[in-house]
Amino acid sequence: YNLEPEIYSLSILKEFIDQKRQYEIIGNSQQLNIHIKLDTGMHRLGMEEKDIKPLIKLLKENPTIRIKSIFSHLAGADNHLFDDFTKRQINTFETLSQQIIKAFPYKILRHIANSAAINRFPEAQFDMVRLGIGMYGIGDSAAQEQELEYVHSLKTHLILKREIEENETVGYSRAFVVKKKMTIGVIPIGYADGLSRQRGNGRGRVWINGNLVPIIGNVCMDMCMLDLSGVECRENDMVIIFSKEYPIWNIANELNTIPYEILSTISQRVKRVFYQE
How far apart, in whole angstroms, are the C-alpha atoms of residue 269 and residue 211? Predict the structure, then answer.
């Protein structure tokens, strides 16, 4: 599949070299590219400063393994409180990567900038940048999102609209009690689709026909119920979970989390529609 592995420790590199030698024994000798990850301060994965010399030695002893790129990851580029730390990370990356680059005669690419760093730290752009969540039009804050174009949304539709009498209850565990006769709606999206159960019982809202309406009762696996009091709508009307009208940051704030978590928990059974110009 022409895959090129990330090498983030000396032990992984040694294992990779051993595996390559086994293939060479049976006649599968070829040049392979690798990507070296450096730990510049996040302390998750990556080579440390003490690993650089043995790394260079191992690769010089195995010239059919070539470094395609060197990279690292910024821990706090999205938060101005950590700007000094981010600058130290960038400087560390510059120093360590230069040591490796000077040891080899071929071109080695470098990249460290994530979505937040692309604009905030232009000195970190090097040869490439990694535009991740920014591709979806999501910034590191609601303010930055004004500079981006929304290209993401999660939508469903109203499958039932009905009247519920006073003192009746709605949903599992009878979690919502109707205080006076009201109109409710049902939408076919639940926690198995990625709509957090924490958003039930009035803590979360959705957008329908220009109105923000609360989710009532407990969120079910495949459905949830809405308070449609005073809202002009009909069955099959579109219901927006998040989009330009109701940004994903609003949901993140409701749940005390970040947009990444919300996007990554949308399950595979949710239909994806891609638009291309």
Answer: 27
| Total residues found in the chain within this entry | 277
Q: Helix, strand or coil for residue 103?
A: coil
In whole angstroms, what is the distance from residue 90 CA to residue 270 CA? 39
Give the integer Cα–Cα distance in Å for 237 and 48: 55
Q: What is the largest CA-CA distance in the chain?
A: 80
- CATH numbers and ranges of domains, the chain: 6-131 (3.20.20.10), 154-264 (2.40.37.10)
Give 208's contacts (C-beta < 8 A, 6+ positions apart): 158, 185, 226, 228, 231, 233, 237, 238, 239, 240
pLDDT tens-digit readout, 27-38: 667 899 999 999
Residue 253: both structure tokens together: 């704030």
Element (H, E) at 91: helix 83-101
Q: What's at 260, amino acid-wise?
A: Y
> To which residue do tokens 């009878």 refer?
174
Tell me the HSE value of 133 on the side-chain side, using a 13 A CA sphere: 18
Helical (H) or strand (E) element with 215? strand 211-216
pLDDT tens digits, 197-242: 999 999 999 999 999 999 999 999 999 999 999 999 999 999 999 9
CA distances from 233 to 115, 133, 184, 202, 228 (A): 39, 33, 11, 20, 8
Count the Cβ atoms, other than its own, within 10 Å of residue 231. Answer: 17
Angle between helices 10-25 and 52-61 (to 10 degrees): 10
Task: Convert 232-247 into a string of H (helix), E (strand) and C (coil).
Answer: CCCCCCEEEEECCCCC
Going through 52-125 in order, the beta strands assigned E by DSSP cover 65-71, 109-111
